[in-house]
Design goal:
Blueprint lengths: L12 E10 L2 E10 L2 E6 L6 E4 L4 E4 L1 E6 L12 H10 L2 E6 L10 H14 L3 E4 L15 H6 L4 E3 L8 H14 L2 E4 L12 E2 L2 H6 L3 E2 L2 H17 L2 E4 L5 H12 L4 E5 L1 H5 L21 H12 L5 E2 L8 H4 L16 H8 L4 H16 L17 E11 L18 E11 L2 E5 L2 E2 L2
Parallel strand pairs: 1-4, 1-5, 6-7, 7-8, 9-10, 10-13, 11-12, 13-14, 14-15
Antiparallel strand pairs: 1-2, 2-3, 5-16, 16-17, 17-18, 18-19
Length: 434
Amino acid sequence: MNRSADVRATTRTVLKGGRVVDSRGEQLADVAIQHGVIVEVGARLTGDHVVDATGCVVAPGFVDLHAHLREPGKEEAETIETGSRAGAKGGYTALVAMPNTDPPQDSVAVIDFVREQGKRAGLVEVVPSGCITLGRKGEALAPMAELAAAGVRIFTDDGNGVQDELLMRRAMEYAKGLGVTLAQHCEVASLTKGAVMNECQCCTSLGLPGWPSLAEELMVFRDIELARLTGARVHFLHLSTARSVELVRAAKRDGLPVTAEVTPHHLSLDDTRLASFDTVFKVNPPLRSPSDIAALRAGVKDGTIDALATDHAPHPRRDKELSLDQAPPGMLGLETALGVALGVLDVDLVHLVRIMSIRPAQIAGIADRHGRDLEVGAPANMVVFDPNVTWQVSPDSLASKSRNTPYIGMTLRGRVRHTFFNGTATVLDGDAQR
């Protein structure tokens, strides 16, 4: 039954019995929310509606820096509404929508459309990213000043790396002046033509064309040096190799304004999965070696990697049923990210909240309303999750319009119970309320 009328933003709602986790640490406390904000934090609070948080973590809502919502143009795979619902079920209150739509997000008209569709769904805040180049073609810069004036804070050609060094330098110079962030898909395209999987012994024995780590690392190195030259903020999308992690670590030691993300699948699945020739394991960048995975996990633990981002990439079944060389890369991620992270990362809950909420909100430029400490006056964008419960991923339970998740049949630990967006319950007891 839809119970959203019971837990409206105008109702004084108390989240009772949970462990509040934010940047300040942990405390046992009840949290009262009303009119979209937190109005009280303390013991034995009362309200018009009580939401049970016993045994659960109460934290700022998750923020995904990297979600493909497909609308406009590819609604068969996902819509902004269905992707937002999947996000809410995964504990997210904000999603940065990637610009590889049709038409792409390189004009104010498309940016406004995506933002308004998100508001219409009312499940999460949909934060449109803008293209770095017109049409994501890598030939001419998009109207960055105009898009920034329309509220765009992060620009990317995700799906493509900007190949032209001079064009990327100019983009960084503009970004520095505008105070926005460039998010780079690190791939030297000339090194990955026809590639299907990680370049390794496994790909040789399988007879599959290999994708070298160098294709990522060259662009990471180039853009670190361009950031050094220009002073622009650069965010590296979906890092996947050990050397990439070390390059970012060194750049941070030098004080450069660079940040980086990693996906749940690059932390949990290795390149041997492609031995099955199952296209659900085909992704860009490809799944890497166990040693790369270990380096990525270490990078998360020591703070080199700032954020866990899903790269949620839905595809219709017929596209993923194509041959391995023809099927598009990409996996779902929004509804399983928490369970994967809790299962593979050796970090405490404060650190987990930092990489899934606090740092992503800061990088996206929305830290005024997401990823904030749970204190009086803060917007009630919150997640309640049980870090210990186990569950098995079933396609029938997914809110996404697509089903291309690599985790079907796997048992994950940790699941969202409740999500609140602007004080309204979007998920209660694991069920979406809209």
